[in-house]
Amino acid sequence: MRRCHCARVRLWVWTCLFNGVLAGGAGVASAQAEPLQEVTVSASRILDHRTLARAVRGFVESHSTPGARINQIGRWHQNVCPQVTGLQPAFSNFVTREVLNVARGVGAPTRPAGKNCGVNVEIVFTSEPQALLTHIAKSYRLLLGFYPVAQVTQMTTFTRPIQAWYETGTRSMDYQPPVIGLSKGAPPSDTQYNPGADSPLLTGVQLDSDVTAMGLQPSGIAGSHIARGLRSEFAHVLIIADSTRVAHYSLQSIADYAAMLSLTRMAQLENCAPLPSITDLLASGCATPAPEALTAADRAYLKALYSANLEQTLNLERGDVHERMMRQIEGQ
Fold first, then answer.
1. What mean pLDDT, rounded, does the chain reach?
2. Could you give the CA distance from residue 144 to residue 161 in angstroms, rounded to a whole number?
3. DSSP letter string over 98-135?
4. Residue 197: exposed, middle, or buried by beta-carbon count in 10 A (0-12, 13-18, 19+)?
């Protein structure tokens, strides 16, 4: 299928109404944020190797939701290209730079400095998040990713200060035909899309959607209980932040939170992570003070994620990420 251009949905048409909402205020719009101390994983927090291993295992599980289509962990294989809307330009540029800096620092693919790229991570600040989400669900359904019908209400309801949706594709590693799928231009709704001659193949990249896949499954390696010959790839990440609920946080904190959501699909955000994580910032009942920036555990996990073999079964993928994260932490 041709590269999906759903990312070019021009969400700024909606969010421009909210530009400057945070300007001149405190918290996320403040350019005078105090220097932040990184929360590190120290020996005093970890009693022994076994305790650390158990905590890391829980951290990996909480930070890696497998795709609904092939039950494997997804990540970026094309260059991460963020765009921030709903803030004044200086603040938007700050968040964009932070996401790119984090991506480069952990080994995620990014464009060379100064080079243009097609936007595939959209971070939107708005005071009307549910209205925006409802509009996207109605007109640009593919941007919300692939999920069972039973989850429609859950996936189209805005409940947290910051939420993310992942459009993914599945690639068969046995054969690499030309990419097929959505045509260029504004992304159509599910009911409007007619694949026609661009029907998906059983190999190559397929967008994870009932509309484009037409019920077909990508072919992998038959008869193997280890290597599957398939991998899950991020095609587009949509992050919506409720500007009224995040205004009292520093811009650095929100940028790092968005960076984490841009690079991995979280399994849960409501609960505290097994190790200190930036995701604790908006979770309930976590230790005070919660981390205000990416922690050593966050960076160790992301480095492990972007170096691991993610063409295996889910248990083996998580095991590989676990071992690499352990080496990152214990080597510090």
1. 78
2. 17
3. HHHHHHHHHT--BPPTT------EEEEEES-HHHHHHH
4. exposed
